[in-house]
Specification:
The chain has helices at about 25-35, 40-45, 50-70, and strands at about 5, 20, 75, 85, 90. By secondary structure, the chain is of the alpha+beta class.
Length: about 90
């Protein structure tokens, strides 16, 4: 799980359309591909999805993060259709 769940602009009041929802699986795709430097095939295997599905998740995540950064919106990490496994415990 991310340490922070919401990243928001410091000097802008946010309206209803100023929050981007990034799912946990989208967050994980960005972490694996962009931070860890894994190939799409390696990351897909870790996330237990097909490579095309991983690429689709990552593409959607990149679009959402770009929208948040360019259009000065908050990015809130929540939900998604994944299970989180920590030290052998499924959540």
């Amino acid at each position: 799980m991310p340490g922070e769940r919401c990243f928001r602009p410091k000097f802008k009041k946010l309206g209803e359309g100023d929050i981007i929802g990034l799912t946990i699986d989208e967050f994980e795709a960005i972490r694996l591909a962009d931070l860890e430097g894994l190939t799409h095939a390696q990351a897909a295997k870790l996330m237990k999805v097909s490579r095309p599905t991983f690429t689709r998740i990552l593409s959607i995540a990149h679009e959402k993060v770009a929208d948040g950064l360019v259009n000065i919106k908050a990015i809130k990490i929540e939900g998604g259709c994944c299970r989180i496994q920590t030290k052998g415990i499924n959540k």
